[in-house]
Amino acid sequence: xxxxxxxxxxxxxxxxxxxxxxxxxAISIFGLMMTVSNSLEQASIGVSLGYKLLNDFWxxxxxxxxxxxxxxxxxxIKKPIGTILIKVLFCIIIIGQFALVKYHLATLVNLGADLLxxxxxxxxxxxxxxxxxxxxxxxxxxxxxxxxxxxxxxLNKFTNERQIFASAIILVIVxxxxxMIFSEATETDYQNKLVYLGADIYRYQQxxxxxxxxxxxxxxxxxxxxxxxxxxxxxxxxFDIQAEKPNIxxxxxxxxxxxxxxxxxxxxxTPFLDSLITKSLYxxxxxxxxxxxxxxxxxxxxxxxxxxxxxxxLNPLPSHFSLISVLKANDYTTSFYSGDNSSFDRKINxxxxxxxxxxxxxxxxxxxxxxxxxxAGGFSWGYPDREMFKxxxxxxxxxxxxxxxxxxxxxxxxxxxxxxKSSYLAKVDSILNSKQLFGVNKAExxxxxxxxxxxxxxxxxxxxxxxxxxxxPEYSNTIFIVTGDHRLIPIAQKDKLCRYHxxxxxxxxxxxxAEKFKSISSHWDVTPSxxxxxxxxxxxxKLKEMSWMSKxxxxxxxxxxxxxxxxxxxxxGINDFIYKNYLYAxxxxxxxxxxxxxxxxxxxxxxxxAADSLLxxxxxxxxxxxxxxxxxxxxxxxxxxxxxxxxxxxxxxxxLTKGLNYDQTFLIARDFAFQKDYxxxxxxxxxxxxxFPNYADARTLKGxxxxxxxxxxxxxxxxxxxxxxxxxxxxNYLALLDLYWWTKQDTxxxxxxxKAKEHEIKNTDIxxxxxxxxxxxNNLSDANKVMDSILKLDPKNETYLTFKxxxx
Length: 808
Known about the structure:
- By secondary structure, this protein is of the alpha/beta class.
- Helix content is 51%, strand content 9%.
- It is built from 27 helices and 16 strands.
- Strands 2, 3, 4, 5, 6, 7, 8, 9 and 10 form a 9-stranded mixed beta sheet that branches. It has a 5-stranded antiparallel beta sheet with strand order 12-13-14-15-16, covered by helices on one side. The protein has a two-stranded antiparallel sheet with strand order 1-11.
- Helix 23 (730-742) packs antiparallel against helix 24 (746-758).
- The N and C termini lie far apart (100 Å).
């Protein structure tokens, strides 16, 4: 009897495992149908389906075997609980598999160990940008678990144990032999998404363990520190050198892959950039060092290593310098312009460490600028490219020259929304109906029509910026550098190299002539070459040492590669490596041709050299970033480290913030402030500001606590800092007005109130405090005028009425 019970209990598990496999198959069919319906290129639907079903079978079987001991355990405890538990676990697995398929459909790449590199807030922001989180969006997440239960019910009702057992044997034989015959089935696109995620995380952790175990005992050198005189000036031959230092404008275009410019595959949708190429120094075989935006600032501006999850994620940042800090030390006014929040990806932490003068992000835009329309989920990345360029131009006046202006676009990113979108969609149609020749089928362009319209919009915005800049007197002495942060992701990638392929253009009226270079260089090479050019030709304080990850731009016109370029595909994933004319990716070797395409090759010796070289870089990368061995602190006169906490302070912070996010931590800090424990309140504020320097509430609270203690000068510095960062934040104006009231600085109060009015701050307490200042200055006429305007908005406010009556 017990054997029969055990047999029945075991067959229930087989039914559940088969239901899981069939659910995987249904999800794969759904994914393939969505791919075909979106007109995405698919080599062979039958082959793709076959390989996916094959991998799903083994994934489901593996998961079944993995959880069987747990299920078996409950046979001896309480059988129904075992069945319920496995059903719940399998439902969670099905939801996970579907979520990963959705991710692949949106990004055309599998989610792997990059999952570990992003915070929940970052992931939510990215998903919110790509998808509208409505009921319809979540409906399939409910339907597929229901399908699992339906399949399980059908198998139990319409099959018997012998049939299911025989089917299992046949499928194992068929799929087992297929696994050995069809080696192509192991390719990334065909893999079960959950298995890929698990395998990639396991690989990442293994590599991390190897790097962590690397014996660094007794080592304390700075391996990339070299004399600056070793740096070659390769740009001088192309420029007419002037007496005055040139202005530098660096434009980083979101998603601008090399395939979208010039005569490349997706040509025809960046006409202005294409025209600029003919007047520029143009590197056509150029790469970003990372597959996402997080890598562009430290690579392009600092030629810096990656750290474990990207240089920007290092906290605290290791000692280093950058183009920003060196030029600032040489009397350049340094500014960063973007339409999004500079706290995303911790860009602001890097910029402020390098003591940039001005950060203009979405917090600094007034009502005259139109923000990108929010999607159905209420998310917007910020201000579209044309608005961002308009804001940039408006900020240039009054800034002392020479200037370094870093401009970062964002529109060419999911969800690809921007003003006047319908007119740009019509332009795509017009281009498709023209006689222009394309590198791909027109159907593929139509499938990504939003993206190509977005490219046209960004290109047009850049043209607007350049047309306006030409009118400025400093144009004749300005150098423009244009590149992409990485190749946009939603359009299918032809190979594993094109994700990094971006253009590099250096344009200037100072150029002697345009040139094209087929040699390979990367973002790592820009700052070394630019600083060598400036240091050798203009009156700048010469660097004595440098600590670059690469040697500078290669200006050879023929196709070649003199660099070794490790590539960080995502946060935490350094799996790709350019060595000579080869790409090493995921353990395989590809030959790079002069058109920047790749072909898989079988060259075991070169494969081993490339793999060993990448491993050596990973060890070096870990040593440099974990041991603060990029650039000696003693030599670093260029940067401002973040707040450093003592061990005692860190212990207090850990105790007070355990399990809390930064918003919850702020509420704790506020409570301490109200309890007059100002020291703890400011400690928590500093903890928040170390991660989010633009957290206006925290910096304002810190300023208020200083004022409450009578430290008015430092409080004013803090509050004016908030005003500079977030000029549309009303509570900071109130804090400043309170401070000026307590210190009897009524003139300053009037100036601040006028600034609030200028920025159209809608808070009646601000003009009320202005009226109080006027009263104390015996300017009753202006006090009455202000109160009359307030009472029109809030005629029944007792406080306002009482004060108004006191002015008679």
